[in-house]
Amino acid sequence: MREIIDISVPVRPGMITYPGDPTVTLERVVSIADGAAANISRLDFGVHSGTHVDAPVHFIDGAPGAEALPLDVLIGPVRVVDLTGAERLDASAFAGVQLQERVLLKTSNSELWQRGTFADEFLALTEDGARRLIDAGVRLVGIDYLSIGDEEAHQALLGAGIVAVEGLDLRDVEPGEYELVCAPLRLVGSDGAPARVLLVREVATNELAT
Predict the structure, then answer these.
(1) Nearest to 58, CA basis, from 43, 49, 73, 47
(2) Other residues' Cβ atoms within 10 Å of the Cβ of residue 133
């Protein structure tokens, strides 16, 4: 049996966005109730809203946009790493941590999704934390809040060609091995792209029942 876990944040008006980013507007512009043949809505939001993938051009002028994100990196085996006890995501936070090609960082950030407003105290990678991942051969890293790291960390990761996935909801995810399916929108020239992100694993029937 397969278990599929949606670790995407629902996109809706009033959702938490990074300070300074556009807010989310979703409105019905054509309505069956008003006599139309179908309902049609308009969505207006920033490309870094909710669960999304950063493109290199986000921090590196002239670099590739979201349409160039490597598909082979976005799908495949992934390890959810337990960093819930870390107080800082620097290089030392990864001491003794097994890293692989794709890693998702489950931190104390996961609990911040319960708040109704943006949390300034979220954990994010420092530059040396980012370089620790680069040195380990990581090609994709995800985190459980709206930014993977500070400016220097972003530049290091994106400059090294690492895919950064932000805004994951890992509250109900146990650390361990999964298959990752990450599907960002193919937005030409964009500095980011909203994504539906799923984790898939094989489980015994009795595990699903519990």
Answers:
(1) 47
(2) 26
CA diameter of the chain: 63
Q: Which two tokens stand for residue 140?
A: 């994709």
DSSP letter string, 49-88: SSSEEE-GGGTSTT---GGG--HHHHEEEEEEEE-TT-S-
Supply the pLDDT for residue 206.
67
Which portions of the chain are predicted below pLDDT 70?
Answer: 206-210
Which helix (H) or strand (E) element contains residue 157?
Answer: helix 151-159
The bridge status of strand 52-54 relative to strand 192-202 is: antiparallel
Residue 131: what pLDDT? 98
Q: How far is Cα 134 from Cα 140, in angstroms, rounded to an integer?
A: 10
Distance, in Å, from the CA atom of 98 to the CA atom of 181, rounded to the nearest integer, reads 21
User: What is the pTM for the complete model shown?
Assistant: 0.95
**Quick check: is 58 catalytic?**
yes
Q: CA quadruple 185, 166, 140, 104: dihedral positive or negative?
A: negative
Q: Residue 145 is encoded by which pair of tokens?
A: 């809040």
Residue range 2-8+46-209, CATH number:
3.50.30.50
Identify the helix (H) or strand (E) that includes residue 145. Answer: none
